[in-house]
Input
Amino acid sequence: MVPRVSTLGGYIFEYQKSVTNPTGFWAHVADSFFWRKKWDNLLNWDFEKAEIKWFEGAKLNITENIFERHQFYRANQKAIIWEPNDPSEATRELTYQQLFDEVKRFSNALLKAGVKKGEVVGIYLPMVPELVVAMLACARIGAIHSIVFAGFSAQSLSDRLIDAGASLLITADGGFRGNKITPLKAIADEAMDNCNCVKTAVVLKRTGETIQMKAGRDIWWDDFVAGVSTDHEAELMDAEDPLFVLYTSGSTGKPKGLVHTVAGFMVFTAYTFRNVFQYGDGDVYFCSADIGWVTGHSYLVYGPLLNGATSLMFEGIPTFPDAGRYWEIIDKHQVNQFYTAPTAIRSLMAMGMEWLDGKRLKSLKVLGTVGEPINEEAWHWYHDHIGKNRCPVVDTWWQTETGGIMISPLAGITPTKPSYATMPLMGIQPVIVDQDGKELTGNSVEGNLCIKYPWPGIARTIWGDHERFRQTYFSTYKNMYFSGDGVKRDEDGYYRILGRVDDVINVSGHRLGSAEIENAINEHPLISESAVVGFPHDIKGQGIYAYVVCTNFSTGGEEGIRQSVLLTVSKIIGSFAKPDKIQLVSGLPKTRSGKIMRRILRKIAEGNTSDFGDTTTLLDPEVVEEIVQGKI
Ligand code: PRX
Output
């Protein structure tokens, strides 16, 4: 088993070891895995060039560490408990043996279809167990999975498939979410029409919708696996072979395909899962994230399964059929650890206490949050009413780029403080720097959050653009990874994440780049320019405020333009990226060099009407006045 600390003294001791002798520390953690060949060189790194390699020379397969490693004593234990969108539909359970057989069968089917090691397979599926089967089968044969969240539009899907060069796409006829059906196949059809790379589409039947099947390209999942053997020997992978590409938004340009590699990701997610959640044998763990985001990759699938855990997977949404759904699932399956996003907590809190009536929640031992800062009120509600004052809340800070949790309490071990991610995990060396890159030492300081030493889970590159990787994360501050987050270290040395310091907006825990939303809005034929900023939102954490320059209202008037801007964003990105507020303006505040002064727009979006700081570089101060007054 992966080593686990169980006391505060143990944490302090292990942390010290991990900082004074990082390679010795990680070698010890890695020893608990199953390697076909051990590494020659544990760590090789150069932050200047953004080159990081862990466990070089080692040979392994991550799925052997999930299945073969646990085979003898976990074969009949539940690996996945699946709870459907509609509670009247039956729950599905897969033991480790059943999941293993499905993974091997699907691995053979992929090989039969000609998928080779190193090829990218796109996955666009709802939250069903086949999604786990598909991703693990890719990992088993050495194909690189690239999962696209099933809320993304056809254009976003095709952009990602093209960038990754996916040759095969795994999708479904549709997906259930609350009382809605997402027509996934129709969206995937449109996406595939726009890209030449996808030659085969495997289609899972989930909703039973009538769909088009294109001859020579599309094949039903059941036909794809029919008659295929469940004997499969895992492909031997190099430690640094890519495991997956996952797209995420940055402050500029198009989304980046972050690449995680096999061995480092495995060691890091397994170790952090076990220690943060203090998972014990027989526990039922429920992560409510979608596998389309990194939380689902690391802490619904890989981290738990590498520990032989029982991972609960939920297809639906927290408010269907009513706002007591999560609590009902927790009671039904006797969940011990529950991991969700602050947005979900805030929205359920806002719906009132009656949804907790009759819910016992007695099985809960640990509560977790991730994805955005959690405000004190939500923290207390979660702690008092869900955890009944007896479950530690682990506020876990990390990112798509970090692969796994970086700063977090260890459940029941680290004393918590509402809205603080508390202390760095073993092997993580955070530093706080000021604007000039000067390290701010000691306590009671605030600045930008950087990490000065590599950890095994760090992303290795951006798919097809290593220079962008270097520039984005390693060029702002010398010899450090820059997270893009602001942070405070308080008088006790505890870390509190303050939110992004760049143009990334975190809406309901979904990460969006302002440039990405602006580019979508600018596709609207009547919009010449736009600027998007975040503003504080009671439920979503941040909302999206769009200032749009529109010079022609001939069709539909102002309201018509607003509606069509919303439609455009839904079509180009997905409906989760729709602005909450759209203000039509005649121009945007710009500097003489043509740069939009977002600082001012952010203040206005927050409700400020004066006190804009230094505005001497503004080209046209009248524009600001007009925006404040709401004039076009
Ligand atoms: O701003 C931080 C916020 O989410 C960003 C990373 O988003 P993403 O790559 O989509 O990964 C989300 C799930 C790991 C971070 O830069 N964030 C994440 N966790 C926290 C957080 N902000 C405050 N507190 C957290 N616990």
Residues 96-112 form the longest helix (17 residues). The CA atoms of residues 592 and 619 lie 5 Å apart. The pocket of adenosine-5'-monophosphate-propyl ester is lined by residues 248, 293-295, 370-373, 395-400, 421, 483-485, 497, 499-500, 506, 511 (CB under 6 Å).
